[in-house]
Amino acid sequence: MRDNSLPDELISEILSPALKVSDHVFSDTSHISPFASYGFRESTSAYLLVCRSWLRVATPLLYSVVVLRSKAQAKALAAALSENPELGHFIKKLRVEGGFGPPMQTILKSSPNITDLFLTLEIYSSDNVGGLCKGLGFINPSGLILQNFRSKPLNNKTVSQLLKGLSQALGKWDNLVVFDCPFEGSESHGAAALLPVLTTKQIHTLVIPSSWESTWAYTAFKACPLQTIQVKETVSEWERKQLASKDPGLIALLEFTAETTSKLRAPEPELPLIAPSLNPSFIPWADAPREVLDKLWARILSFAMPSTSPKLDLLLISKSFYRLALPCYYEHLRIRRADRLFPISSILTRETTLGSHIRTLTLFGEYSDDEDAGDTADGKSPQVKPSDFIIAILSRTNNLVEFSSGSRFTEASSFIRMDDLQLSWDAFETLAKYSGSTLREFLGRIKAHDSNASPIAFNSLKALQKLWWRCGARFPDVTTVSSDALQSLEALRISSAHSSFLSVLSEMKLPLLRHVILSERFTIQSQDAFFQTHGSKLTELTISDNIVESLGAKLFEFCPNLSVLTLLGFTEYPPDFKHFHPPRQVPSLIKIIFESYYGMTHKEAEPSWNNFFTNFKSQHCLTGLQEMRFTYCKWPTNEREIAKSCWVRWAEMMLTQGVSLVDLNGTKWRPRLKVK
């Protein structure tokens, strides 16, 4: 059989980017390890299982940089090196983020070619550094990187034991030329133990945390043949002025990155060189008809006018540019202050066709009818209210696609600070009347609390796809709304509303409704009617704890096709089990999200949640459930925290049922290697 495999050199080039660990990441001494997130990814050792050629080529690449973050990893590596001594010769860089006991002696003894060693002094008294101390004498690295707590270094017997073992090993290391120093002064516990030996070495590169350590470090290592002192943190302008007064010898050795006071702008792309025209009087499209010319320039100007901050200066180039660019300028209209209402209303009144070009309208802040909304031409305060100006503007914008009060529609979160703009009910009816056939999103707050309103306005909103309702108006006669109202509605979010609003919605067919967010309290009768009418259509549902409690086991009866369920407010104690044990199977539900700002703030809640996870049986009813996400959970980043975390215990408990626990970053927990 003909061998069609690639040469090993090519396979190595292909696999190197996936298996390589950069020097910057390897030497990172941050309190949270850059490798803390690696455990949530697929293991790089999976590349070795593809085929024999990949195993042969990838093995040296995989073992060239070894990172140990737990006792189980150290034990597994020691066993692998004992069975295959050749593997130890591949190890060039070793990062040890703990003590990890006797296996460390085997690892170091089996790895004679280590050039760079990373050790942490963030070691607790419960750790075992005996094997590490015994094994340090078997290697002779050229680079040593130490990590230590900057704010409060640990000082216990285990740290002292490691410093003593490291000091003894340093006496034998004649290759050491690079030292990454974590100490803030020569009098610190670690520095006092190691400096007497380190300063006798041929160190030419010294790495220090910040410029504040430069003076003492330069003095302490002056006997070494220093060539460079690298500063990790950026150096401010004030620090640079302070350094200027230091020893010239120190200044010559320092390497650092200057701190910039302003954000650097991205370089503008260079325009291609265009040869000058042979005819200086040439005018582009001079012979084109006026209609064609207007369409061409209007198209060009539409790209030059960004939606977030349209360029006013383009309107001032010429009269034709003003005429053509003005509709583009007003296409996305944002009114940030009440005193802008009057001039904009005047412009739309004067330019009668301009309002039809406005596609999105955003009103920021709070407009009170008691404040001044702008001055008239004669300098006198107008005798109209700001709400009247808003109505005048809405009556002249008949092609609106989006209306908002400064906030965007968020798919899940209901804990977002909103602006306080409140439309009058008359303004909402005006919006529905003039833009009902084009409006796709409405995200406004309506000032109609404790007052009666007619739902007839909803009959005009035929194109509305997303509705964020924040209005306390009562609807005494719900039958006046058409069953075909809001026929295009796909996503509904209710942050505040009277219970009669749900009754209005229950009168509608809403054939496209799929996503609902309810964070308000409603009467049981109104919410039951709403879910009976529309629950079977929903695929995504976000509801508050009080609605969950009142629905009880009816939740999945009303909504049998849910794929995502978000529960708000369950912070101290979990929901009742009856909500997750419907009378029949719900295979469609894939994800449950528990959303809150706070989470468990009291230890007393932990037993209740532990009972919740212990007795949760997804296979019985929720056969399709794949993950449960908690927005107040964050996975621990080191072995000590993992051992103490209740979330880790619950995550591994749920994995036995095929359900992944997900933290606030959307990261699933992956079980770690364990010591048997």
Can you give keywords for this protein?
single chain, 23 helices, Leucine-rich repeat, LRR (right-handed beta-alpha superhelix), twelve-stranded parallel sheet, 22 strands, 676 residues, LRR_dom_sf, 31% helix, alpha/beta, F-box domain-containing protein
Q: Label the overall shape.
A: globular
Q: What value does the Rg take, in angstroms?
A: 34 Å
Distance from N terminus to C terminus (CA atoms, Å) equals: 45 Å
SS field, number of helical segments: 23
Enter the CATH topology name of the domain at 330-526: Leucine-rich repeat, LRR (right-handed beta-alpha superhelix)
CATH-scheme architecture of the domain at 330-526: Alpha-Beta Horseshoe
If you average the pLDDT, what whole number results?
Answer: 84
- What class would the helix/strand composition place it in? alpha/beta
Strand proportion: 5-15%
Helix content: 25-40%
Strand order of the largest sheet: 9-10-11-13-15-16-17-18-19-20-21-22
* Topology, number of strands: 22
Uncertain residue segments: 262-266, 376-382, 408-419
Largest sheet: 12 strands, parallel
CATH class term of the domain at 330-526? Alpha Beta
